[in-house]
Amino acid sequence: MRKRMTGVIGTLGSLALASTLLACGAGEPDTAAPLSNVAGSSDAKHPEWAKYTFTIGDNGGDGSQELARITGVFDNAPYKVRFARFTFGPPLVQAAASGDIDLGSVGDVPPITGAAKEYGFKVVAVNRSLTPDQAVENIIVPKGSKLRTTADLKGKTIAVPQGSSAHGLALNALKSVGLTPKDVKLAFLDPAAGATAFNTGKVDAWSIWNPQSAIAVKNGARILVKGLPPIDQTSSYYVASDTSLKDKSKRAALTDVLKRLSREFAWAVKHPDQYAQALSKEQGIPPADAKASLAAYSNRVTPVEQSDIELEQKLADAFLEAGQITKKVDVRSITDNLLPAGYDSSKLEVTS
C-alpha cells in the first residue's frame, strides 16, 4: 500500500521508533499492473502535496509494503510514502504521537494505553475483519501442558506483550472466569522474548497473535483460549498523529493515503495467493504458514462506528478496573474519522 516507494526509512530521530523498528523501505512495482483509478487525487488538484513524505507504520508485517510494490497503488500519488515496521502496537502509537510516523495500524489495546499516557494521536479508521470467526490471536500452552481451561491459569505465568491487543485478550479471558491479573503472573515480554520464554518452558502460557500463535501450534502447542468475541476483537485500528490531522492540507492528503491503503487490501483479499506471498516475505515465514493464517488477515477498511467506540470504551474501563492503566480513557475523545460515513473498501472496484 504505498505510492511509488521512494526511499528507505532513515533515522527518524525517535529512540522509541529506532529501538522497535524491524524493517522499512521501498521498491518499485514489478509484475502486477497498477490498480486503476486509485483514490482519484492528482498532482493538478493538489500541487502542495508534492512536498509531503508520509511514513506509514505497520504492526508486525501485514503485507502492506510488499502489496504496494506489487500493485503500484501509490505509483501516481502526488506525495511520497515510506514504511516503518514495529514489533507490536504501543511503540507505534507513541511514534504516531511524536510525529515519527503519520499513520499506522494497531490492535484494540494500544490506543487505550496510549491515551492513558496522554499521547497526541487519534483513531481515524477501522481495519474490520471479513472473517470475525477467525481468531487473530490466542492464548496458547506448550505441548504436554496440563492446563485445560481458562480457570486453570490461576497461579500460572502468562507471557504477554504489555499494552498490546494480546494483553487485552489475557485480561478479558481472566475476567471471563472471575480472575484478575493479581491471580496470575503476567510476564510482560515483547514477541521475540515471549517466544523464547515459551519455547524454553519459562512460562506456562503465551498470549500472542498470528503468525507466532499459528506457528507454535503447528510445532505442537495447543490453543487454550481463542481470541474471539466477546473476549477479544478481531479488527484493528488506524491511528494518525495529531500534528498531521490538525493541518488541513496534510489531513486531506492522509485521507488519500488511507483510501489507497484500503484499495490495496481490497485487492489482496481477491488475490489470496499473492497476498500470502506478501505476508510470507514481510514476516519471514514459509508461504504455507502465511496461507494458513490468511483468513485472519482478510479485512476491509471502514470509518470508526459507534459500536467500535463502545467496544473500545468497555475495554478501556476494564483496563482501568484491573489496574493496568491509571487514567480513565474517553474513547470518543480520541476518535477522528478520516473516511466518510458508509465507506467500505470491500465494495471498491479493484481490478488491476
TrEMBL record:
Gene3D superfamilies: Periplasmic binding protein-like II. The keyword Cytoplasm does not apply. It comes from Streptomyces cinerochromogenes. Residues 1-23 form the signal peptide. This is ABC transporter substrate-binding protein. PROSITE patterns: PROKAR_LIPOPROTEIN. InterPro entries: ABC_SsuA_sub-bd (IPR010067), SsuA/THI5 (IPR015168). The keyword Signal applies. Keywords: Signal, Transport.
